[in-house]
Amino acid sequence: MLKHRLIHPRINEILGRAGHHGKILIADGNYPASSKKGPNAEVVSLNLMPGVVTCDQVLRAVLSAVPIEKIETMMTETSGMYALDGDPPVWAEYEESIRQAGLALRLEPVEKWSFYDAVATEDHILTIQTADQQRYANILLSIGVRMD
Question: What is residue 39's three-state secondary structure?
């Protein structure tokens, strides 16, 4: 019986094979998960209906299961129709979930096209596609070293 919060069998299987530096993309409902991924990545779709499940819900489950050493987020556009005034509201949710997990990590914003490049590496092992409708909710986690 698992003791952590993540109970999805396929996601647990993939994470169980992962090692240090493996990358996990938690993708919002707008992310092109079929085309913007690494050559070794598997996609698990959790997009049941708009808004269910959210990226933050998946983040909390993943943080309970594997050690994370780095968290990158897609930067907002500063002009144009998709521009936001300030950070996306979902980032505050992420920061709270990270804090509740007992981690001292900070979100590292990455420009959109550089974010896609960071995902499209051999270390990218898993995309968890959500139905989160918030803009700029994509989050890329790098697995760290287990210390206990």
Answer: coil
The count of C-alpha atoms lying within 13 angstroms of the C-alpha of 25, restricted to the half-sphere facing its C-beta, is: 33
Q: Which two tokens stand for residue 59?
A: 């983040």
Structure tokens, 125: 């092992």
Say if residues 62 and 101 touch (Cβ distance below 8 Å): no
Q: What letter would DSSP give residue 129?
A: E
78: helix, coil or strand? coil
pTM exceeding 0.85: yes
Task: Give domain status of residue 94, yes or no.
Answer: yes
Tell me which H or E stretch contains 11. helix 9-17
What is the extent of the structural domain holding 99?
21-143
**Residue 15 falls inside a structural domain:** no
22-38 pLDDT per residue, tens? 999 999 999 999 999 99
Residue 14 in any domain: the answer is no
Residue that is written with structure tokens 């959790």 in the block: 46
According to DSSP, residue 76 is labeled P
pLDDT category of residue 148 using cuts at 50, 70 and 90 = low
Q: How many domains does the chain have?
A: 1
49 — pLDDT class (breaks 50, 70, 90):
very high
